[in-house]
Design brief:
The complex is a heterodimer.
Chain A: E1 5-8, E2 11-12, E3 15-16, H1 18-34, E4 38-44, H2 48-53, E5 61-66, H3 75-88, E6 93-97, H4 100-113, E7 117-121, E8 123-127, E9 130-137, E10 142-148, E11 154-158, E12 175-178, E13 191-197, E14 210-214, H5 224-234, E15 237-240, H6 242-246, E16 267-271, H7 277-283, E17 288-293, H8 299-303, E18 306-309, H9 312-328
Helix pairs in contact in A: 3-4, 5-9
Chain B: E1 20-25, E2 28-30, E3 52-54, H1 56-72, E4 74-81, H2 87-96, E5 100-104, H3 114-126, E6 132-136, H4 147-154, E7 159-168, E8 174-181, E9 184-191, E10 194-198, H5 210-218, E11 222-224, H6 233-236, E12 243-249, E13 258-261, H7 264-278
Parallel strand pairs in B: 1-4, 1-6, 4-5, 5-11, 6-10, 7-10
Antiparallel strand pairs in B: 2-3, 7-8, 8-9
The chains are: A alpha/beta, B alpha/beta.
Chain lengths: 330, 282
């Protein structure tokens, strides 16, 4: 086992995803503790553009695993390539993002290799020479500290927004090597028929530093336009608690909470969300929380850094205008 | 490395078509709406006074299984690994309409990690006819989401995780599923036998009917120990775990915030000032 730390990089349109860059930052700290290297592993149909940009974000070495069958993510294709690579040259740690891909892939790889895995990590660090991860448990009512035993590698699946984006250092270069891939189409059992992209005016929740979120207090689907407008002005994303999803006002992928997504943005602005435990499970790790609710007893108002007791239908348009004014002033 | 087994492994299951043999894996977990008590030594939670229920996502998994049975015929077998109390979760599934339930309960499995848990389930499933194995995408106690894909690996089956739509072909030999991904939806084709893990938007679980509840009470729940699954504590017990819960603690309290009540313009100004000066995002 080497002391290296691998990051499994996800990318789209020639750009590494934000979560993968965050993982490079996490990997740098781990590699420093062990005097190892940060290795970015990039599977894909074409990888040269992504690979070239990773040195500047902290990778010492990049393995480009290019193959036409890796153009789209499949469990079987990616698991085959990754387990072979991790077996050939086992690093100390392999980091995956807690994305739809990472959650599907990492446990399968861990099972095939028979190595330790911890998912939904909020931190991964070294304590007395041992790898330790923290993660929320029991609807975020508890934080678990998990110790890895010495397997090679140890796999950590890390939540988005836990580590800051490493600054871009254009002069920093990584050694780029191509990783030989042998893959037979027949080995891919679950196949992708198509990927339907959903066009939204606002950015995806996973990439957002600011999330504007609506609950039952939004009163109907048409009022989510108020949140869209504010999110656009702020450069953020729109989410929701569970009742708007259950009422069919917004699609399921908006949902933040126990039965939806876990987010940790810089700012979470909750509008008309009372703050049931099941919602708090998905957002109470946010850096700053602002809540607007007309009910002064809403639990989320008590939790928020700034709680506003008031009518969101009056506040939101004014707030959007005020944000636009600040943004346009020099 | 596969664990050493005792006895002869069963022949691998080959699908027969049409009638579908459905396995649903369920877990009993604390009710998410209830507060939990962390043991003073931080070793876990105190379950004695806790209301335990079937994992929420497993209700959706059970529902998916029942609907497949209604469409194709066949049977739904529930499987759980846990304490004696986990029978309550299995009874919930039986009351919803599942045909059979098996509990794997063994004190030697105490401290098992998620991969070990998947190994236990895999060994039992291997001995049963299975065209499709359905799990919840996560369980609400630890949120790990490891067992489904690991189970697929140990059974050497294809997988589709966190599915939000399921359409099985007329012969019951493959499925088209939808899977929510960042910024879109993947449409996947999965040949059976397969392991599926389900998202809550897949279906609306039925409530157990009164006759269903009465019937479930009388049903025998088969209980197996590790030896019956041809496993030993050294392969799936605490000693074999690759990860250990070192401690459990309450999350750090957020620093007390301030609450404004009254003038709307003042509220707007306060939010803008907060975004600028405290959050520094404006």
């Amino acid at each position: 086992m080497s002391h290296d730390v691998w990051v499994v990089v996800e990318h789209q349109d020639g750009l590494a995803k934000k979560i993968s860059l965050e993982l490079l930052g996490c990997a740098r700290a781990l590699a420093a503790a062990w005097s190892g290297k940060v290795v970015a592993f990039v599977p894909g149909g074409s990888t040269s553009q992504v690979a070239a940009a990773l040195g500047a974000r902290g990778a010492d070495m990049v393995f480009a695993a290019e193959h036409p069958l890796l153009q789209r993510y499949t469990t079987d294709g990616y698991a085959t390539v990754l387990t072979e690579a991790l077996r050939a040259d086992p690093p100390a740690v392999a980091l995956f993002g807690a994305t739809s891909q990472g959650r599907d892939l990492a446990p399968r790889v861990a099972a095939r290799l028979g190595v330790g895995i911890v998912t939904d990590c909020t931190s991964v660090g070294v304590q007395d020479g041992t790898l330790v991860a923290t993660r929320p448990m029991y609807t975020r009512k508890a934080i678990g500290t998990i110790r890895f035993k010495e397997t090679a590698p140890r796999i950590a699946v890390v939540l988005p927004a836990m580590y800051p984006l490493p600054p871009e250092q254009p002069q920093r270069k990584a050694e780029i090597r191509s990783w030989p891939v042998q893959l037979d189409a027949r080995a891919i059992r679950t196949t992708v028929r198509e990927v339907k992209t959903i066009q939204r005016e606002t950015i995806p929740l996973i990439d957002a530093d600011i999330i504007v979120s609506g609950g039952r207090g939004m009163k109907g689907p048409e009022n989510f336009a108020l949140l869209d407008a504010l999110a656009r002005a702020l450069g953020g994303a729109v989410g929701s608690s569970r009742p708007p999803v259950d009422s069919g006002w917004v699609p399921h992928d908006y949902e933040i909470g126990q039965t939806g997504k876990t987010v940790s943005p810089q700012v979470y602005l909750a509008c008309g969300i009372s703050g049931a435990p099941q919602h708090l499970a998905g957002m109470s790790g946010s850096k700053h929380i602002i809540a607007i609710n007309k009910d002064p007893n809403a639990p989320l108002l008590q939790l928020a850094d700034l709680g506003i007791v008031g009518d969101l239908f009056q506040i939101l348009p004014k707030l959007t205008d005020a944000v636009k004014r600040v943004k346009s002033s020099p | 490395m596969p664990p050493p087994r005792t006895g002869r492994p069963p022949e691998p299951w080959a699908p027969q078509g049409e009638r579908v043999n459905i396995i649903v894996c369920v877990k009993q977990v604390p009710d998410t709406e209830a507060p939990i008590r962390i043991k003073t030594d931080g070793s876990g939670i105190d379950e004695t006074a806790l209301n335990l229920v079937m994992n929420y996502y497993d209700e959706h998994a059970t529902e998916a299984g029942l609907r497949l049975r209604e469409q194709f015929g066949g049977s739904v077998t529930l499987l759980s690994v846990g304490h004696e109390r986990a029978k309550e979760a299995l009874r919930t599934g039986l009351a919803m309409g599942a045909d059979e339930a098996i509990l794997i309960s063994d004190s030697a499995a105490e401290g098992v990690d998620h991969l070990g848990l998947a190994r236990v389930l895999a060994e039992v499933i291997r001995s049963l006819p299975h065209d499709v194995v359905i799990c919840g995408k996560i369980s609400t106690d630890d949120n790990a989401g490891i067992v489904g894909p690991a189970l697929a690996e140990y059974l050497n089956l294809p997988q589709a995780t966190a599915i939000a739509h399921l359409e099985v072909d007329a012969m019951g030999t493959s499925a088209v599923v939808h899977r929510e991904v960042e910024g879109g939806v993947e449409v996947l084709q999965v040949p059976f036998p397969a392991v599926l893990t389900v998202e809550r938007s897949l279906n609306e679980p039925r409530y157990p009917s009164l006759p269903g509840i009465m019937k479930a009470k009388r049903k025998e729940i088969k209980t197996l120990n590790l030896a019956a699954a041809r496993l030993t504590p050294s392969t799936v017990g605490a000693a074999a775990s690759r990860t250990v819960l070192a401690s459990l603690s309450t999350p750090p309290k957020r620093k007390a915030g301030r609450i404004l009540d009254g003038d709307m313009d003042q509220a707007v100004a306060a939010i803008v000032a907060f975004l600028k000066d405290e959050a520094k995002v404006l």
